[in-house]
Give the backbone structure.
Amino acid sequence: GQNELLVGVHDWTGLFSKQVDLSQVTEWHQVRGTPKDALLSVIGGLFSLYGIWDDVTLVALPAVHVADVFVQTSVRKKTLTALVTVRNEDTTQRTVRLESRVQDGPELPAKQVTLEPGASETVEVSAAWPNPKLWSHETPHLYELKSQISDLKSQMRDETSTRFGFREFWCEGPSFFLNGTRIILRATSTWPTGQPANREQIIGTYRAIKAANTIAHRLHTQPWQKLWYEVADEVGLLIVVEGAVWCDHNAYRWGDQAFLDNYATHLRRTVGNLKNHPSVVMWSLENEILHCAPGGKESPAKDPLANLGKLMKSYDPTRPITYEADLDPRGVADVVGLHYPHPEYPRVNQYPNVCYWMDEEILMKRPLVDGEHEKWKWDRQKPLYIGEFLWVPSADPSWHTIFFGDEAYTDYNLYKRRAKAMSWKMQIEAYRFHGVNGICPWTMFEGGRLDETNPMYLAQKQGYEPIAAFLREYDRNFYAGAKVRRTFVVHNDVMSPSALTLRWSATCDGQSVAKGDAPAQLGPAERTTVAVEFTSPSVSKRTALSFEWTLERGGQRVFAESQTYWIHPTPTLAARPSIGLYDADGRTAKLFEAQGVKFTRLASLAEVPSAV
């Protein structure tokens, strides 16, 4: 008939540049490492699920129609701009009038466009908007822009509606800003679902994420169903979009222009599909390509990745870009991406001390860093997004004895989750102390249900408290009469300034040992430290002491925590023992005398004096 949709299905190995022998492959996971320098197109990380990634829609349009709309909002300039692309697929020249308007917002200037057959033109229209309702994760207000074209000679019309949120996300020095307010991305991430999710399932997932004090979600390894972005717009969750290039450094043909063109097309179309979602705040071009490359030498992927980053910025100049795990290839990234920095447990075991590593250089292999000096330190010239840490793919319970001793052997799976959770809490506190701009342990989705029965979910929820006072010190045993010094790190990670009051108390056997309070005036994404000290009480036996602290904001308690400390009697030194020496040949006696060691000579071991 006149309208016909043809769908072709072919061998997925058609994306290889050459014949690859897969005859010895018996399981899907073996496919991943078999092609070498062969892939001509991006495939994402779920390599066993080939096929389309989302629904396909066939739309009937007039010959002259609105082909695309890119809504750009600026909080700093207080302007709304729309880039409207009009296409003429008729056989004659057409002149149309473009009108754009926002309900409860400004009307944009009308424009007249004349198009030759087969031509397209992108028209920019802009208007001042001094007082829009801003979209954020706290207030996800949405608008609709209606773009209409009408033929000046005929009755032909076409209209499209574009949903958007008025918001602006940018980098300035080492900080993120959302609508002019500094912000820390408290994030999570996971793999796409194996089966398509419906709206109710996605809403449930996002509500659980937000209940864990998490405000950002990186959609890993490929574009997800568009429904995930739509719901994020509605519930208020910041999204990091990742290109469909995952870890396969040796499989892709980095020196082949056909692959690079396909990669660029993928990025351009990703922007085209998702650019009007206010929830999307950052583009990640890939995941761990340089991180997984052979060490000790440069990678053929580095320059192409840098060039693709420049292209990505031309596709969308309104959002920052990053490279997951791969730092800042050739200085092109807006955001430094980092995965699994510094040795993690069990390679290091002095937790939480080892979490505070960021003031020193750490080992970082080439090709992640340039040159032979394989060291790296965050210079704070750009924001830092630590997109994965403490995955801990353990093989046996011994790893988790660092935190739980021999208990870890009683239930491997439970203590694996509990140990990861404990290390996460400590590391999140350290990264927040150091001012890291984006924090994302990998991943609470692997710990069980997204609720407090999942130790990793609970640790992330506790570590991500937006207004919080964390203690640097984790020691809990003290002698009577000792000076106990505590350091609070107070955070304000909400979108407005906070006048906070820290209150603390130490109580033992129902009696107050010490207490105090301190003010903390903090702007958004600011932190401060408060040091306190008290003397532990006198006790005759091991005795519990309750140390409690709270934060108040505007007279309301917004944070509370407590710890149990143990106070021990001060030990007394025993009298110096008397040394008895039986030394038949006298050589040991000479050594003792030379060192000034007093001793009693014993003529025999048969009768040892009681004083010895």
